[in-house]
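User: Is it possible to get a 3D structure for a protein together with its bound compound? The compound here is magnesium ion. I've pasted both below.
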Amino acid sequence: MPANLPAEAKKKWDEVAATRDPKEKIRLLQEFLALVPKHKGTEKLCKQTKRQIATLRREIEEKKQRKVGTGGPKFFFEKEGAAQIVILGPTKVGRSSLLASITNAKVEISDYPFTTLEPTLGMFPFEDIQFQIIEAPPLLEGAAEGEGLGTQILGLARNADGLILMVDASQNPRAQLSMLLNELNKAKITFLKSHARVDIERQFQGAGLRLILLGRLINCNVKDVEMLLKGQRISDALVRIQGDATLDDIEDAVFQATVYRPTIVVLNKIDSLVSKAELRKLSEFIKEQLRIIPVSCKTGQGLESLGKELFEALGIMRVYTREVGSRKPSPKPFILKTDATVQDLAKLIHSDFYTRFSSARVWSKRLVFSPRKVGLSFVLHDKDIVEIYAK
Ligand SMILES: Nc1nc2c(ncn2[C@@H]2O[C@H](COP(=O)(O)OP(=O)(O)O)[C@@H](O)[C@H]2O)c(=O)[nH]1
Ligand SMILES: [Mg+2]
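Assistant: Yes, that's possible. Here is the predicted structure of the complex:
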């Protein structure tokens, strides 16, 4: 450790050394990191500290997995297909019925609550791709505090690419959805794409806090932000804020905690007696922030739109590649985020394609001239066909 650290950092280090509990150690290490002045001489120390934090985090995670692994059901699944989607819902809303309706999975459907105590998997075909669907055990109130299999279920959701929140139209769907969203919120899983980008660049001691506001602060002002940062002992940093940032966004940037998971709501059992007032309450509650897809797993009504809804919510697209000299594009598309470029595709295919890239040709109906010769920064669209030339 460099000898010229400020006294409070040294003191914090002693606290770190005296602590055995990994979670507490992470917290103290983060505080220590905030106290270390940032310059060339401390670069190595900061890196080491960050690595130590990452290792501790991994250990905690592995321990959790092991605990789940001994005897209990399996809660981690290798991803398959275009995206991994987890169905979350209270008991008896029809999660198993949905899985049985849209996938090949063998499932148990019953009138008894809590039939499904371990996740069940199936593949859901949509056009020329497939989604991997996982039915989670029922999510209960208090899941975020570990109620039921809450920790494991929310871990499953955190790991997924997207979520289906399922509620029963005949059983106060607003209350059900509100419970689900509340638990997800407590578990720091959000369905709202952040409208903000917050970058915090730590600086040498004495530099002070500098806020560069390229966007807007929502429901807070510069003073609030400074208070929050100082409360986390970040007093020397350059903070760049883009887009519309709330205090929560800034906190997330400090802790790197909340994850965004694209989410849709499936409102099941619309074949049964459903109160119009209840449905109105539900849509008022959602306020267009979430897509509701009304379905009946019993009659099949509404299920046909589910694939497209998922595809759109996930914000993904399909891109087909064509080998140079070949006439036909690959039958299996690459799955990319909707704003992806030729560069993203090249990297996804093989790092060689990116480093040896010379140019590409894109076939698409949307282009006036197709194929068109393009470079790495060209933004791709769903169903584009791409041929990449390497040097
Ligand atoms: N009326 C009606 N009942 C349904 C529908 N979907 C499922 N159910 C019934 O709801 C009960 C619970 O279904 P299940 O799929 O096991 O729910 P899970 O506990 O969420 O997996 C069963 O009795 C199903 O027959 C539907 O669309 N309409
Ligand atoms: Mg079930």
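The pocket of magnesium ion (ligand 2) is lined by residues 95-96, 115-116 (CB under 6 Å). Residues 43-69 form the longest helix (27 residues).
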